[in-house]
Design a protein that fits this description.
The chain has 269 residues and is α+β, with helices and mostly antiparallel strands. It is 35% helix and 22% strand. It is built from 9 helices and 9 strands. The strands form 2 sheets. It has a 5-stranded mixed sheet. Strands 6, 7, 8 and 9 form a 4-stranded antiparallel sheet that branches. The mean pLDDT is 85.
Length: 269
């Protein structure tokens, strides 16, 4: 599956051989197909194996092939290209999410075994970076779109990155490319565990989400959105300097949509 991807590096970069072994272990075709059978809902395997789709998309993502059609022409897939695109079109978002979680779980176990984790950013907490990713706009292949400058957005995703492991550990895909990131936060909230610490930008400063984090005995460091209301309990107090300026903090109170209140620390740089 990874031959063309890493062959160019093997001669001058032997470490690529080790990477290849690890990747083929994580994405072993038989193992991937067995996993797919445990998570699929409406989809089924007939002429095109799920592992074949993963292999094709890997070549596109790694820029070995410029498009899915090009990867198909250089593959051993026996089905027609129409069947391939039909398979891709009906790939369930939950399958994509499950694949990320599955690979992350396999990788986490190995990373811990070889002592490959990064130093913890904050000991005692599992830090998670939460950010959004808009899939690039599609080309104007349909005639009705050729007179417009804007491209159709095929999707959006929220991604959770674990800096201790150095890998993405979860993804929340959405087929609506124009959906707001905050519309996916309820799905993220369902996965929060005690002692998680979420770090995110102001787009995720949503009161309901902040309270759900607190209710699950987790924590957050999220940039304040300009429209987020708060009630100051103390005045700003100078607490030190940082590389980007003076640092102040104060105690404030925020109120949830259902009128619950929560006291938090507001930091100003």
């Amino acid at each position: 599956m990874f031959g063309e991807v890493l062959e160019r590096f093997i001669q001058n970069r032997p470490i690529a051989v080790m990477v290849r072994v690890l990747l083929e272990s994580f994405l072993n075709a038989d193992q991937i197909d067995r996993w797919f059978d445990t998570v699929r809902h409406a989809q089924y395997t007939k002429e095109i194996l799920f592992s074949s789709i993963v292999g094709l998309m890997l070549h596109v993502v790694c820029n070995i092939r410029p498009s899915v059609h090009s990867a198909y022409r250089h593959s051993e897939v026996q089905a027609s290209v129409v069947a391939l695109y039909g398979k891709l079109q009906h790939l369930e978002p939950t399958t994509s999410q499950g694949l990320v979680r599955y690979i992350a779980g396999e990788a986490e176990s190995l990373i811990h075994q070889i002592g490959g984790t990064n130093p913890p950013l904050l000991p005692g907490y599992r830090v998670k970076f939460l950010d959004g990713n808009c899939i690039e706009a599609t080309e104007h292949r349909l005639e009705v779109l050729r007179g417009t400058k804007a491209g159709a957005l095929p999707g959006k995703a929220l991604v959770v990155f674990d800096p201790h492991l150095g890998i993405a550990v979860d993804v929340f895909p959405c087929e609506d490319g124009h959906a707001q990131e905050r519309s996916l936060l309820s799905a993220v909230a369902n996965t929060i565990q005690p002692q998680d610490l979420y770090i995110a930008d102001r787009n995720f400063c949503v009161l309901e989400f902040l309270f759900k984090i607190h209710q699950k005995s987790a924590f957050f460091i999220i940039r304040q959105h300009g429209s987020t209301p708060y009630n100051p309990l103390t005045s700003l107090k100078f607490v030190g300097k940082s590389a980007t300026g003076d640092v102040f903090e104060q105690r404030v109170e925020i109120t949830a949509p259902k009128c619950q209140t929560l006291e938090v620390r507001r930091v100003v740089v």
